[in-house]
Design goal:
With 201 residues, this protein is α+β, with helices and mostly antiparallel strands. It has helices at 20-24, 49-53, 79-88, 105-113, 119-126, 136-146, 171-176, 182-200; strands spanning 2-10, 30-33, 36-39, 59-70, 96-98, 103-104. It has three domains: 2-70, Alpha-Beta Plaits (2-Layer Sandwich), CATH 3.30.70; 78-159; 169-201, no CATH class. Strand 2 and strand 3 (36-39) form a beta hairpin.
Length: 201
């Protein structure tokens, strides 16, 4: 969840149309129109990445007339479907996906069940990836994949398709490095998930 009080605004006279701001925007709020960056105020999450990356200083932040709340209420979706989606992604519904916004797996999962199909959709709905963007991207992708959605970045976008979770480490790597106790970590995680499922029934 994130409350957004401001949005980006482009000075068209300074914009050189290099697309850098478009490529780093986590919500897809910036698009090129006639070789100039244009901000969709409905999508802007005030992450300030565009300002950080614009070498021309063509973007500034302005206050919104009214703040916008980026939040999905997990109670608005089917709870069995939500738990199953989180389980498939190897996440507990209460796991924090985005430490910067304190957004949980249940909120991201609810956004996906409500129609989010891309990381940008999830960001617009929940606010994840609109601060540092380092921790949450892999987990957002994991939940999207668990829902059967393909996560392929558009050309030029500043994110990568990643698959770095514990359960995705190849078995030969797990066997080769027993000192990391990856097999035990997988087993303990599965035991905790099984206990949770049993206690709910």
């Amino acid at each position: 969840m994130k409350k957004v009080y401001s949005l980006a605004e482009v000075d068209q006279t300074m914009c050189i149309g290099d697309r850098i701001c478009e490529n780093v925007c986590p919500t897809g709020a910036i698009r090129m129109v006639k070789k100039k960056a244009v901000v969709d105020g409905q999508k802007c999450s005030a992450c300030l990445k565009c300002i950080d990356y614009c070498g021309e200083g063509a973007i500034r932040v302005v206050l919104r007339p009214q703040p916008v709340l980026l939040k999905v209420d997990p109670s608005e979706v089917d709870q069995d479907q939500l738990r199953e989606l989180c389980r498939k992604a190897h996440l507990d519904p209460d796991d924090v996906i985005c430490p910067c916004t304190a957004t949980t797996a249940s909120e991201v999962g609810a956004a996906i069940l409500k129609g989010a199909r891309t990381p940008e959709d999830v960001s617009i709905m929940t606010g994840v990836r609109t601060a540092c963007g380092m921790w949450c991207m892999a987990l957002v992708q994991e939940l999207l994949r668990a829902h059967g959605l393909k996560t392929t970045p558009s050309k030029g976008y500043n994110w990568y398709e990643v698959d770095t979770a514990l359960w995705n480490v190849p078995d030969e790597v797990v066997r080769k490095y027993p000192e990391y106790r990856l097999d035990e970590a997988r087993r303990l995680f599965q035991v905790s998930m099984d206990k949770e499922t049993t206690s709910e029934n």
